[in-house]
Write a structure and sequence with these properties.
The protein has a three-stranded parallel beta sheet, with helices on both faces. Strand 1 (about 35-40), helix 2 and strand 2 form a beta-alpha-beta unit. The longest helix is centred in the first third of the chain and has 21 residues, at about 5-25. By secondary structure, it is mainly alpha-helical. It has helices at about 5-25, 45-60, 75-85, 105-110, 125-130, 135-150, 155-175, and strands at about 35-40, 60-70, 90-95. The two termini are about 35 Å apart. About 60% of the residues lie in helices and about 10% in strands.
Length: about 180
């Protein structure tokens, strides 16, 4: 039995992205720039957002961490989101959840420009995702197949077919 090395795969992908970003910079193109908005001092959220900042540095992206106090008003947070939406230097951003109770999470997520919505939480993006579920799972299977080829694993085609059907049946039952 072969055990898949997810950490190695992740590092290989990051290495590829690093090369692409380096080439973009060499060609005078804009460096991708991700922003992360965090409200309050939730330890798990700070760790998660910190890992995103580190991942950006690892691949050569620019990143901006926007730390806001838990006491911020909803209006102030929405103004910051509007500022990020209109900042041409920021290519995309996340609003780290959970938000404090006095802030309407749905209203905040709706305020994020769908073109800059890295998490895909905006209804426009979530709706597009729902329309392509089957395609996404087929792409996952293709990615698994490509991994098997790259690592010289010899999967049985029927195993991949069964895996795909199992995933699709879960999706079908969840959507009905």
């Amino acid at each position: 039995m072969t055990i898949l090395d997810g950490k190695k795969i992740s590092n290989d992908i990051k290495d590829e992205i690093t090369q692409v970003v380096a080439q973009m910079k060499a060609n005078g193109q804009k460096t991708p720039h991700l922003a992360a908005v965090i409200v309050g001092e939730d330890g798990a959220s700070l760790t998660y957002v910190g890992s995103k900042v580190s991942a950006c540095a690892r691949v050569g992206f620019e990143s901006t961490l926007v730390q806001l106090p838990a006491e911020i008003t909803q209006e102030e947070l929405l103004a910051k989101i509007d500022q990020l939406n209109n900042d041409s230097e920021i290519d995309g951003f996340i609003v780290q959840l959970p938000l404090p109770r006095h802030i309407d999470t749905q209203k905040v997520l709706l305020a994020v420009d769908p073109k800059k919505d890295v998490d895909g939480f905006h209804p426009e993006n979530f709706g597009k995702l729902a329309l392509i579920w089957k395609l996404l799972f087929q792409l996952h299977l293709l990615a698994l197949w490509n991994y098997c080829v790259a690592t010289k694993l010899k999967p049985v085609a029927s195993t991949l077919w069964l895996l795909g059907e199992a995933i699709l049946s879960v999706v079908r039952s969840a959507s009905s």
